[in-house]
């Protein structure tokens, strides 16, 4: 096993073109004829290890977002793009990648994103050019469900306020009426979007003794019985839930779904949690709802924009807990996402079914 790894490594020369670019090329070939893939960030190595023998891999080898002009430059002439949710993959990127006759003979053969979300990719353009798109569902489901539960518990039990009290010295004697929160036992939880992640969250909720799980979405889920969830209207969910969780993907139809009207329908004791996309929420309306006591608390792992500016009014509230989009941030999930992205790319060049191809309507 170790000998094999060494042999593979020796077949590939790593060139650092600049402080930001890495290229993995064949050592022996004067002209490397392998297909080219561009990776837009430093990612867990598992994916790169799978690609580097079969592809010339060029990589934006930094932890910060690739600047737009570097993306346009890096994608030029590549056969495959390994991208992230922070990269806007639009017509300009596709144009920059391929030759003029791209609609007849696309040079870019696949775009694979290391994310389950794909709203950053212009799918209409990809479809027009017959470019298959890969994504990474399933492998991050449990990690994201776990983080959703963490936010829900932390927000409902007022952990931000409690920690601030300890650190700021306002923790007095044990007090029977101090720092009271809301528990899950006997609660009604409303999940907006009972997809992969919504369902996994519902499964986590059951052992906490919730009395009802209701959900809303475009259609009834065939998995609802697994968690004894009831399909209800969005309004019913807002009015009757103690906890409201945003677990649906962001589409053109649900931008700003959680707005002043939605918050006004929630219980004043409601806890709102969003681990999907910041675009689902009108943040000014959320701020007003939290500030005025219209709802009790909010936990957000996603915001608009990301990163959330440090002067955002949301950060002044002690009933609002904001995390930096870490839903899938476990070693296991991120490594699996990197691997699945690589496997999606590999499949295209081996004329196989992609393990996770996006079904573009
Ligand atoms: C995704 O993959 O879309 C997630 O938001 C990353 O955590």
UniProtKB/TrEMBL annotation:
Gene Ontology CC terms, in alphabetical order: cytosol
Protein name as annotated: Glyoxylate reductase/hydroxypyruvate reductase
Keyword tags: Oxidoreductase
Protein source organism: Mytilus coruscus
Keyword match Cytoplasm: no
Record bears the keyword tRNA processing: no
InterPro entries: D-isomer_2-hydroxyacid_DH, D-isomer_2_OHA_DH_cat_dom, D-isomer_DH_CS, D-isomer_DH_NAD-bd, NAD(P)-bd_dom_sf
Gene3D superfamilies per record: NAD(P)-binding Rossmann-like Domain
Residue ranges annotated for the D-isomer specific 2-hydroxyacid dehydrogenase NAD-binding domain, each copy included: 149-327
Entry's family note: Belongs to the D-isomer specific 2-hydroxyacid dehydrogenase family.
Domain called D-isomer specific 2-hydroxyacid dehydrogenase catalytic: residue spans: 37-359
Lineage, top ranks: Eukaryota, Metazoa, Spiralia, Lophotrochozoa, Mollusca
Origin: domain of life: Eukaryota
Cross-referenced Pfam families: 2-Hacid_dh, 2-Hacid_dh_C
GO MF term (any one): hydroxypyruvate reductase (NADH) activity
Signal sequence interval, chain numbering: none
């Amino acid at each position: 096993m170790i000998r094999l790894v060494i042999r593979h490594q020796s077949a590939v020369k790593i060139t650092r073109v600049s402080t930001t670019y890495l290229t993995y090329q064949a050592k022996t070939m004067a002209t490397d004829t392998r297909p080219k893939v561009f990776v837009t960030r430093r990612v867990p190595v598992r994916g790169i290890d799978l690609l580097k023998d079969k592809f010339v891999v060029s990589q934006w080898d930094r932890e910060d977002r690739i600047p737009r002009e570097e993306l346009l430059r890096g994608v030029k002439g590549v056969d495959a793009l390994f991208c992230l949710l922070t990269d806007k993959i639009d017509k300009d990127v596709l144009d920059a990648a391929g030759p003029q006759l791209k609609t007849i003979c696309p040079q870019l053969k696949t775009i694979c994103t290391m994310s389950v979300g794909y709203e950053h990719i212009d799918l209409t353009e990809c479809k027009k050019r017959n470019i298959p798109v890969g994504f990474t569902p399933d492998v991050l489901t449990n990690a994201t469900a776990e983080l959703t539960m963490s936010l829900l518990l932390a927000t409902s039990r007022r952990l931000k306020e409690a920690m601030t009290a300890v650190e700021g010295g306002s923790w007095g004697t044990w007090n029977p009426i101090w720092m009271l929160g809301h528990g899950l036992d006997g609660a009604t939880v409303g999940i907006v979007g009972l997809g992969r992640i919504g369902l996994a969250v519902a499964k986590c909720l059951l052992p906490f003794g919730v009395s009802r799980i209701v959900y809303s979405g475009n259609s009834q889920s065939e998995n609802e019985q697994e968690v004894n969830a009831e399909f209800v209207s969005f309004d019913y969910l807002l009015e009757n839930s103690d906890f409201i969780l945003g677990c649906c993907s962001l589409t053109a139809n649900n931008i700003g779904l959680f707005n002043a009207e939605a918050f006004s329908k929630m219980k004043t004791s409601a806890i709102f949690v969003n681990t999907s996309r910041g675009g689902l929420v009108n943040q000014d309306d959320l701020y007003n709802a939290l500030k005025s006591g219209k709802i009790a608390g909010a936990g957000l792992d996603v915001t608009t924009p990301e990163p959330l500016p440090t002067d955002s009014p949301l950060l002044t509230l002690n009933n609002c807990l904001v995390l930096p989009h870490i839903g899938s941030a476990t070693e296991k999930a991120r490594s699996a996402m990197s691997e699945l992205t690589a496997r999606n790319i590999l499949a295209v060049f081996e004329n196989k079914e992609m393990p996770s191809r996006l079904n573009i309507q």
